[in-house]
Amino acid sequence: MNKPAHLMGGVAAGIAAAKYIAPTVPYSGLVDGIVGSGVVFCGALLGSLLPDIDHRHSYIGRKLKIASFIISKTLGHRSVVHTPLIIFAFTAFLFFLSNELIGEAQALAKSFVIGLSAGMWSHLLLDLMTKRGIPLLYPFTKKSFRIANFKGGGIGDSLTTTGCAILIGLMLLNLL
Ligand SMILES: [Zn+2]
C-alpha cells in the first residue's frame, strides 16, 4: 500500500484508539478530552508510516535517512519491522518505559504510545492485503502471508482508503 492508504488507515486507527482503547487504559487521566485524543491521533499517524522505515525510498525512510539506511541494510524491507511480534515488543517496551515518567508527561507518553501501536497495527493489516504480504509468524517462519493480492497503488489502495473513510465516518457519527 502507498502512503495515502496507510495514512488513511492511521486516521481510522487513531480515532478508534482514542475512542475505544485510550479510555480503558489506567493512567493518570490528566490528558483526557481533546488533548489526549490529539496525542493518540498523532501517534497513530506516525505509527501508520513507521514500519516502512525499513524501506529507504518510502516517505518515512526519506525523513529518517540514517535510521532507515541502517535498518534496511541490516534487516531488509518487509522483514522483522513488519512482524506482529516486533511491533508488540517495541510498543510494549515504550509503554513500560513511559512508566518512568511522572504526572502529565507519563499520561501524554502513554497516550502517544497507544496511538503509535494502533497505527503500526493498521500498517501491518494493510500490508497483509498486498501481494508481497508480511512475515506474520516470524520468528517461527520467515514465510510471508497475505489475505488479499493487491498491488501497491492499485485498486487495493482505493478500496482500503474508501473502507477506512466509511469506518471513520461511522465512528465520528457514533454509529460504531
Ligand atoms: Zn509496509
What would a concise description of this structure say?
This protein has 176 residues and is an all-alpha fold. 61% of the residues lie in helices and 0% in strands.
Features:
176 residues; mainly alpha; 7 helices; 61% helix; 0% strand; globular; binds zinc ion
Give structural notes.
With 176 residues, the protein is mainly alpha-helical. It has one domain. Helix content is 61%, strand content 0%. It contains 7 helices and no strands. The chain has helices at 3-21, 33-49, 59-63, 65-74, 84-97, 103-127, 155-172. The chain is globular. The two termini are 25 Å apart. It binds zinc ion. Zinc ion binds at residues 51-52, 82, 123, 127. InterPro entries: YdjM-like. Keywords: Membrane, Transmembrane, Transmembrane helix. It holds the Pfam family YdjM. This is Inner membrane protein.
Helix and strand layout, with pairings?
Layout: H1 3-21, H2 33-49, H3 59-63, H4 65-74, H5 84-97, H6 103-127, H7 155-172
Helix pairs in contact: 1-2, 1-6, 1-7, 2-6, 5-6
The structure holds zinc ion.
Residues 51-52, 82, 123, 127 line the site of zinc ion (ZN).
Keywords: Membrane, Transmembrane, Transmembrane helix
Transmembrane segments: 34-54, 75-96, 108-129, 150-173
InterPro entries: YdjM-like
- Which oligomerization state do the chains in this entry correspond to? single chain
Q: Total helix count?
A: 7
Helix content: 55-70%
Rg, nearest Å: 16 Å
Poorly predicted regions: none
User: Based on CA inertia axes, which overall geometry fits?
Assistant: globular
